Amino acid sequence: MTVVSEVRSLTIPLVILAIIYVVSIIFFHYAEGWEFLDAAYYTTVTLATVGYGDFTPQTGLGKIGAMVLIFTGVSTALYVITHLGLLREKTIDPHVQRRIEMLRNLTSLQTGNVRSEEVRKIKDKIRKIQEAHEGKGQGSGRL
Are both 17 and 65 inside the same structural domain? Predict the structure, then answer.
């Protein structure tokens, strides 16, 4: 997936999260009789999984609404946060990205979870790095 398609794939979850947020604020305003600011505060604290406990639903309907908010809102928020992290990883500096890939390859080699084709690719990458290193006149070319 390209970065643009990754951003587009986040559009629907972000819209869903915004809808959950707004609906929760309105719901707690009417179900619990809280001011809009208090309902927004409770929704934010719940979605952030902080749970200060200074506002808690007192009615049965409010408690059911809180459970729905916890399951739907928190899972949606975590989905968005995870995918933002993946998007950030794809947009980082190519030099850093190559180093991350090398670390993943080394980890695969150490754990033995690597196929012979992957070993060949890793050796080719190491050879290219050594050649580039030697081409810059930076020593013997040994890593």
Answer: yes
